[in-house]
Amino acid sequence: MVDASRSIAEIARELGMPRPTVQYRVQKMRERGVIKSIKAIPDFGKLGKPVTAFVLVNFLPNPDVSQRELAEKISKLAGVHEVHVISGEWDLLLKVRAGSMEELGRMVIDKLRAMKGVGHTVTCASFTAVRE
User: Fold this and answer.
1) Which of 9, 79, 84, 85 is 20 to 30 A from 65 (CA-CA)?
2) The pTM is what?
3) What domain range includes position 111?
């Protein structure tokens, strides 16, 4: 990942290319969807959310909710930052951020596990992120 706050002129200087060329190429990459977005990546610890965990979820077939609908509902829970539909023994992988282990536990036990369609879960707390 590259620092998105850098100007086109700085990038052009670093690459040894004319600024208009770099600007044109960046614009083309945005138009083609190669660059989906340019966004800030916050320090969640400084925002009061120092706990990061990954939660594996088994989908429990239910006539009221499909696996994709469940994934959408889970994505709206406070603290859930990513929801992936995955293959293998588990059906969903969540990336969750919380202010404490207790807060994480309340989210998983009281909210996630109470949702129709959620079977077993396994929560893996992250000690540290080497790269995000």
Assistant:
1) 79
2) 0.81
3) 51-125
Query: What are the beta bridge partners of residue 53?
Result: 96, 125
How distant, in Å, are the alpha carbons of 27, 67, 73, 88, 124 from that of 95?
31, 17, 14, 18, 10
122/120 Cα distance (integer angstroms): 7
Contact 121, 70 (CB under 8 A): no
For residue 105, the domain's CATH number is 3.30.70.920
Helices (H), ranges, the chain: 8-15, 19-32, 67-75, 101-106
Q: Residue 38 — very low, low, confident or very high, per pLDDT cuts 50/70/90?
A: confident
Query: Quick one: angle between helices 8-15 and 19-32, nearest 10?
Result: 110
- For residues 56 and 25, membership in a common domain is answered with no
pLDDT in tens, 89-110: 999 999 999 999 999 999 999 9
Q: How many CB atoms lie within 10 A of CB 78?
A: 10
What is d(CA 123, CA 129) in angstroms, rounded to the nearest whole number? 16
Residue 42, phi then psi, degrees to nearest 5: -75, 160
Q: CA 13 to CA 82: how far, in whole Å?
A: 35
